[in-house]
Amino acid sequence: MVRGDCLAPRDLDLAQACLKVRRSLYQGEPQPPKTRHSRRSIPLSADLLDKLATKVAVLDPDDLIFSASNGAPLRAENVRRRQLKPAGERIGAPWIGFHTFRHTAASLLFGRGANVVRVQRFLGHHSPAFTLDTYIHLLDDDLGPGLDLGPEVG
Prior knowledge:
Layout: E1 12-13, E2 18-21, E3 24-26, E4 29-31, E5 40-43, H1 46-56, H2 76-90, H3 98-111, H4 116-123, H5 128-135
Antiparallel strand pairs: 1-2, 2-5, 3-4
Helix pairs in contact: 3-4, 4-5
């Protein structure tokens, strides 16, 4: 998951329409990502990019895009208790948590026909095999129609 609690305007590349994952918050402190695969660029939709560009226009490059009212990094337990849990209960999904967003991203990417390498890079996994092992249940197990091999085969 991209950790919104340590994103700064300098992490947005407006020209390339992407978010550059350069660090994450660990025990309240910004740290480099866990692996080299975690350092990545994530493409953003035009709509999301416009909304973020408006928000960051008034911030300094190192300010947090999403912060507590005092400017400090958001605390995961507070976001979970104050936002995710009530929202999950309203929609009948009281089990919702941060990892749900990664699972949803993978589901949407596979559902739109993205190949496993693209999903692996989007999520920052170390290998397509790991992504496939983790999310294989999201793939349609129907073999589909038979392959037309053409008259030259046989």
